[in-house]
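Structure ticket #2291
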Amino acid sequence: MSTCVASAACLAPNPTFDGDATGPGATSGTSASAAPATTSGATETSASPPGSTSEGATAGATSEDATAGATSEDATAGTTGATVDEGATLCGFAPGAWTLSEPTPVAELNSPDGEGEPYLTPDGRTLYFASSRPGGLGSWDSYRASRETVDSPFGAPVNNEDLAVNLEGADTKLALSPDGTHGYLASARPGGPGGSELWSAARAEPTAPFGEFTLLANLVTAGDEYDPHISEDGLRLYFATGAPLGVVMSQRPDAGASFPAAAPVAGLEGPDKVSHPFLTPDERVIVFESDRPGGVGDSDLWLATRPELDAPFGPPTLLPAINSEHFEGEPVLRADGCELLFASTRPAGVGGWDLWRAEVVAAP
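Resolution: structure written out below.
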């Protein structure tokens, strides 16, 4: 990949990101069309990874006091703060009392090539992400990096080849079950019908290699599938598919059953791209990427809430203080709701796609 500055021109060599008018994680109009094509021709303007834990980080760890899951029917988020309904909190802040800090690049992980598709283990110490840097098995590979504490920089990234994740082709977002023993991967690897599909694998413990990834055949559509996000109980799998990309969900009756065909997530339907869903543990707050009207750049980060699991999401609102005239997408929140990681092409990064972070802080 060239070391061009962040611009639409830099997106073309980025084959693992959600595609064209919506590929796996595809971004909107300009970014989608400029994004690199997957095996099936669909492109993805954003990418995300996940894998397993490393160097003592425990993928299965959870936060006892995580409050990121609180939500609201009528959440609103402006440029200086965000509001969720009565009783909801984020990172311990009361409704309407939080915003996000100025984003900074995750400099220790970014390269002149592409990085995206972040996934954080519940303890916040291990980050899985996708990269097109040299030395991988495919056009995009899944990597991981660990940090001593949530306030420490990440250590050197490790290719998840040692966890039996990567193959030839584009391996983009890897998402894990909360205990780290099951992985859900968006990949354009051989063995599928072509293009990006969703695959799953299991392992005995959070630091062990995965068994063989198998195609989630019931979720295959005429298009591509991207951006898996698994619920806390392992019964609901959210992802993006369609043209333009939309967020759908497949629900199975128990952890031993197969995932059936998915259906659109109520409240997020529409003519515009919606991709890269990340939900808080109670599934009442969702952050996602979209090129819908009212945004700031070619693709932006949005938030929506619902009062309960079976209710539709309310009207989406822009995340505060994050979006720019450039591409922003592929969001993930730390389990305690205090840190946001995402991908962006904004200046001050290293390559066309870079990882960025921001903290949830008190609103002015």
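Closing remark: Confidence is low (pLDDT under 50) at residues 1-43, 45-88.
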